[in-house]
Amino acid sequence: MANADVKETFSFQTEVGQLLDIVAGSLYSNREIFLRELISNASDACDKLRYEALTRPEIAANAEQFVIALEVDKKAKTLSISDNGIGMNHADLLETLGTIARSGTGAFLEALKEDKKGDLGLIGQFGVGFYSAFMVANKVEVTTRKAGEDQSWLWVSDGKGEFTIEPTDKSECGTTVVLHLKKDAKEFLEDVRIQHIVRTYSDHIGFPVLLGDETLNSASAIWTRPPKEVTEEQHTEFYHHSSHAFDTPWLVLHNRVEGVVNHTSLLYVPSMAPFDLYDNERKSHVKLYVNRVFISENTEGLIPSYLRFLRGVVDSEDLSLNVSREMLQSDPKLTKIKKALSNKVLSELKKKASKAPDEYTTFWENFGAVLKEGLIEDPDLQNKLLEVCRFSSTGNDGLTSLSDYVARCKEGQDSIYYITGEDSKKLVHSPQLEGFKAKGVEVLLLSDNVDEFWLQHVTEFEGKTFKSVTRGATELDKIESDQIEDAEDSSDESDLADLIAVIKVELGDAVKDVRPSKRLTSSPVCLVADEGDMDANLERLLKRHGQMVDGATRILELNPTHSILEKLAQRAKGEKAASDPLLQDAAHLLLDQAKIADGEAPSDPAEFVRRLSAVFDKAL
Ligand code: ADP
Ligand code: MG
User: In whole numbers, what is the pLDDT of the chain averaged over residues?
Assistant: First the structure.
C-alpha cells in the first residue's frame, strides 16, 4: 500500500471529519490545551521507543537523550513540536491519523452533543488529542520516521475532509509536528505564553521540553520527586495525563518502599467511578515502570482486580528489564509488590474512613461494590477489608462499619444479621425484619450483587458470625429485648396447629414447611429459606444469569398474633376445615402475599385475582 514515489490523498473517516469540523470551527476559550496534547504524544512516543530499545538496542542510538523540542518561526507563523521517539510509518499514519475512527471519536462527539457547553478540553481523554491541533492551526504537517525503518513520511492536512501522505527525508527517527497558526492564534508564537502553558500542563512530563536552549519543565518523572515537593495541581495534571481521567483525584498515595523489593508507587483514587469499572475484563490501569522505563499499562499481577479503580504508576528498579512483558507478569517480585500495595491502600483507606467519614461515604458509593470483591479474591486481607467496608443498616441513617455494628449488638446476640435484596430502600420494609426491629436488633441491608457471594466466603467478624434474617431459625429468643416481653407470646403458637395442617395439605409441594413465626410482628406471613438452603435473593441472581433453573422451595411462616391468622385459626378448628373453600383460597393467598412482599409475582396471577375477588366479595 505504501507508495514511496508519489503523493497520495485520503479522506478522513466520516466521524473524524465531523470531529475536525467541530474542533476547527469552535470558539473554545481554552485552546492552549492543544500543546499539552502534542507534548503528551511526543512523550508517549519517547516512552515507546525506550521500551522497544530494551530488546532492539540498535534502533535507538540516542535512547538516553530523549527530548521534546518546541520551535517558533515568527516569520512563517509556525510552532513546531519535535520528538526523537518511536515515529510512525505509512501504515501507522493511516491508522492513527485519519482513515480509521478511534473508539473514542464517536464517544467524544456524543459528549460534545450532550454537554451543550461542549468542553473540548476533554479531547485527550477520548484518545483523539492529536486533532486538537486544528483548534489553533489551519494547516498541520507531520514529518515522521519510524525507529528501525529507512523511509520517512510527510502527512499534511488543512483539517477539511482530506489529508495527504508523501515520502520525504528525515535524518533521524521521531516526529515533528508543524502547526501553521491561524490568524487569531498568534499568541502561541510568544515565548512567555509557551513557557506558561508548558509549566501549567506539562511539568510532569519525564523528558525535557525545550524551547531553544531552555528546559521548560521539571523533566523528572513526578513519582521520583520527594512527595512533599509535588503540588496538588501537578498531581491533578499528571493524573489526567496518565489516566485519561478528568476528575480531581480523591486520594493521592505517593510512597517509596525500601525492602524486599524496592519500589515507588504513585496511586490515585478517582473521585468519580470510571466508566469501565464493571467491564468483564476487570482490567487494572496502573502503569508499570521498571527503572523509569514504561513497561505496560495494565500489567496482570500488579494490582488486584478489586483495586482496579486505582490509577497511577508503580516503578521498581528491582524488576528485570530484559524480559518480556509476559514474563514480568509471573515474576514473584511482582507478587510481593502487589501485596505491599494492597496492604498500603487498605491502611490508607482505613485512616481516611475514620478521619473523613463523609468523604469516605462518597468513595464507598463509587467503589464499595468493587472493593468487596476482595473479600472473595484475597482471603489474606479479608479482615483488613472488612474493617473498611461500610453498610446500610436498620440501626442508623448513614452507613455503618462492622465494628460500630458489633458495638451496638444486644446482650446475647452472637450474629451480625443481614438481609440481601436489590434495593436497600425496599429491603427496610421486608416483613422478615419486623421481629428484629421490635427487639431493637440491627440488621444490615445489603443490596450489591457481590454481597451474596462474599457472604459465602466470610464466616465472622470480631467473633460474630454473619446470619441472614431470611434463612433458618431466628435465634431472637436468646437476645435480650429493649422492650418488656410480650406475656402472651408463646400461647398463640399451638392455636395455629389445625390451620397449619390445612395449609400444608392445600399448598403441597409449593412450600417446604409451614410454621409459626418468631420474626413477624405486623405482617401476617413471610417466606424464609431453610437453614441449609440458598437465600431467595441469591437464587434470583443465579437464575437471572442462567446459572440455576429451579430453586429450593421455601418455608411459609405465619404470624400467630395477626388478626387474619387468629380468625383463620378459629375457622380451621371446624370439622370440615379441610374442604372449606375459603380456607383453601386463604392458603394460596397467604403464600402469594408473602411472595409479593419479597418483590416476586404470585405463582398464578389469574388464580390469585380470582381468589382475591372471591374473598373480597365475601367480605363486602
Ligand atoms: P492518544 O495519544 O490518546 O492515542 P492522539 O489523538 O493524541 O490519541 O494520538 C493518536 C495516535 O497518533 C497516537 O496513539 C500515536 O499512535 C500517534 N501519534 C501521535 N503523535 C505521535 C508522535 N509524536 N509520535 C508517534 N506517534 C504519534
Ligand atoms: Mg495523545
Answer: 91
